[in-house]
Amino acid sequence: MSELSQRTIDAIRRNEAPLLASWSANLEHSGASRDMRISHAEFDAQTREFLRLVVVGSSTGDAASLASNEWSETRAFLEKLSRSRAQLGFDSQHTASFIFSLKRPLFELLQKEYADNAEALAAQLWAVSELLDALGMHTIRTFQKSREEVIARQQEELLELSTPVVKLWDGVLALPMIGTLDSQRTQVVMESLLQRIVETGSEIAIIDITGVPTVDTLVAQHLLKTVTAIRLMGADAIISGVRPQIAQTIVHLGLDLQGIVTKANLADALALALKRSGYAVGKAG
Amino acid sequence: MTAASSGSHPVRTEQDVVLARQQVRKLAVSSGLRLVDQTKLVTAASELARNTVIYGGGGDMDWEVVEEGIRKGVRLVFRDEGPGIPDMKLAMTDGWTSGGGLGLGLTGARRLVDEFSLESAPGNGTRVTICKWS
Amino acid sequence: MDRIPILRMGEFLLVTIQVDMHDQLALALQDDLSERISRTSARGVLLDISALDIVDSFIGRMISTISGLSKIMDAETVVVGMQPAVAITLVELGLTMPGVLTALDVERGMNLLRERVQTQ
Fold first, then answer.
1. CA C27/CA C32 separation, integer angstroms
2. Which domains does chain B have, with CATH numbers?
3. Taking every annotated instance into account, which residue ranges of this chain make up the domain STAS (chain A) (predicted)?
4. What residues of C are in contact with residue A190 (Cβ under 8 Å)?
5. Chain C residues with CB inside 8 Å of B116's CB?
């Protein structure tokens, strides 16, 4: 990356106020600063801070690489900016145009400053352009990362919400699974079942798959592994609601269901669980 | 993929195996791995570190915390200057053992991690690389 | 060398593993335990592994061995308190420990042992 000359930096310093005014006007024009999610005062503070950081970054030396130490403060500022924009729900274009809209005011400034020297003008225009592009790209990268983090967190929350572990009786937990199971969902759900077994000291866990239309090899294997893991922990598992198609799949896959207790439906499974826990259920009177 | 930090740990004695496990646990926690994934990684590291001591005559474990986009991971390399593995296909068979173990070390470790690679030649030592992502 | 303590509770022995064991320590426990079963004519062993945050194939084999050799010496072994993450990892590793009795905690393990011993 080419460097900003001392003359350019000085020019920016001298013209801070008009630069900011022109930048704000640009932002205003693009509609970026008219959004109600960010106040005018906040916008002003951000533009001022960014311009200051660009001057500091370019003047304390090596502007060759954004990754260098001189730019760490600028990077931190942009990362914070991108994150807050991502959380407020802005798109990446908005976030990047915040920086790119500084280009025009800077170009105009350079044109005036270097009116006498076309060669220097070209070099400095290129340097400014490169610098702002790099800063803009960094913003977009950070923005993308923040968005991905938000999505990942939401996916996780959804997974946890989608299959609750419920207590049916003292010492009896049930996991009613509904919908198509993929390997990842099965894994997360099974882990939360095992965790709840420990937390509640439940000796019997019923995994009800009535609401599951089909299972593939991986999911079936996962179910079997979970049953084995539950046994290792010292509790028992009952699988209920095995549909004919799923039974066929399991047999077809040659999976070994030995030692695994299955029941036609959740009611039968609960009856068995109660019997094993020493309860007798009958009509009163 | 970039490496956020890295280091090396000696694996020469049984006590080193215990220390290596503790080191890997710390790395797994700092990389944000879920508890189950931490446990899988530490267990795989325990198997491989033991192999390094028993079959490789001691060696080292190089570790690296790696980043790729928003995911982080732990990469471990177990290397020794031991006799090497003459038959790799056989070594990757469940239940096969040359040292009186259960024969689950290599195959079991492979099932516990996201990436696994084994390089070995008779007389040239063994190098096992594993990686687990958050 | 340090050793894992074995406590006697009536006709049962209680072993609580609270340290990250290296292999020799696990082997020593195996030897100590079989010797104690024989000397005390214990009818059951409770192996509390709730403090272990990993069980690899070596420790897993030790547990299976203890269970097997205690059976030969007319004592039942119950493994109690295995953590969920440990259980999942063991299954993935391929160690399902068939024939090893398990319980959620020491109290339930003790009840299971009593039942077993009474029916014999």
1. 9
2. 2-133 (3.30.565.10)
3. 162-273
4. 88
5. none
